[in-house]
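Progress against Task 2.4 (sequence-to-structure conversion) is shown through the following example record, which the project officer requested during the mid-term review.
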Amino acid sequence: MRKEILEGNCTNKREIFWYAIPAYGHIYSSLYLARCLSEKDFRIVYYSTEEFREVIEANGCVFRSYPIRQEELELSDGQKILKLYRLLLEYTDKMLPFLLKDAVKDRPACVIFDSLAPWGRLIMEQLQIPGFSFYSIIAFRQVGDKGFRAYCKGFSADFLRYASEIPRAVGLKRLLVKKYGKTKLGIKDVLMNKGVVNLMGYSRLFQPGGEKYGKSYHFLGPLAVHRKVIEKNDFDCPNGRIIYISLGTIFNRDEQLLEQLVRQFGRKPDKTSQSCEYSVVMVWDEWNGSQKECFPDNFIVRKFVNQGEVLKRASLFISAGGQNSIHEALYYSVPCLICPQQGEQLVNAERFERLGFGRILRDPYSLRQEAYLAMKLRNTWDEDKRAAAIRTFAKKEAKIFHQLLQKNSL
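Structure tokens generated for the chain above:
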């Protein structure tokens, strides 16, 4: 197989293969850069699952489906770090023969792969072509640096609970090395796949120890807000002040928080509730339309919304603390009350709070008071720092991509 790869067709100098993680945060953060590259006459072949075909094509890419269905993927709970490590190795073993066959046939100029997509890095190594990693989550370069310590703070409590995953992961690691030759497949390498250049889809301000990251790390700023949006709201944003709530799957595990959100922000039918001055737009992944009576009449609940359209009008964003969400809140000048669910979100939340753009909710019973304190930050935060945090460099990156390919040819 190795000889077949190296003796393949000539490289297509205008084609880039992009290997994504089929999750909203990862997809949405990368599409603006992909579109900028396509506008510079690159042909972006973007791999994901069918669920994301429409938005990928809308952003100027050629969609190709992974040989795995969305229902087979289990990537939503980043808190189970050892399980995630094993799953990524498992998906690599399952998908790589199919993906490698495509890559050998088409011989792209380079590959771009999500930092959580080891199959993309292995294709880079097998074909010996330039590869660029794209980060939609904060990075760490080595064990012991600021990023690593920040992650450990958020993940350590549950790490050993999934120790039973280690033997399975070790077996998969050995199998992949046997099939594809010596490669780095340790936990750090699989969860932080590096390219010759690493494209960071967020501001350097939100990277722990970011000032020490060198020339191989290109901080492009927040990109998700600039992608071409296809989702439409089936409701009109209410007049007056709006609280926007989007917490991913947290409601599946934190019924107490859901209860407090409804109790403290809900308007009773007789409109005597003290919180009636706010309308609430809430994203809830279990919403199917039949639970309308479970929520107060000032709540608009949907499974998905056009987040940007709501944030344009919102006074507060109650968020889990994902990179895309907090950057989009900054873009629209909306303070955040953050309820982190896992390690990376906790890191984001702490830096966001330290910069003066939001607060972390530590006690759900103080939700209303904490919301008011968070909203007041809009009057005191550093506007120059906010402007720096939302500055983007994707168009510049697309413009110099030819030079990057030439400089980093293997």
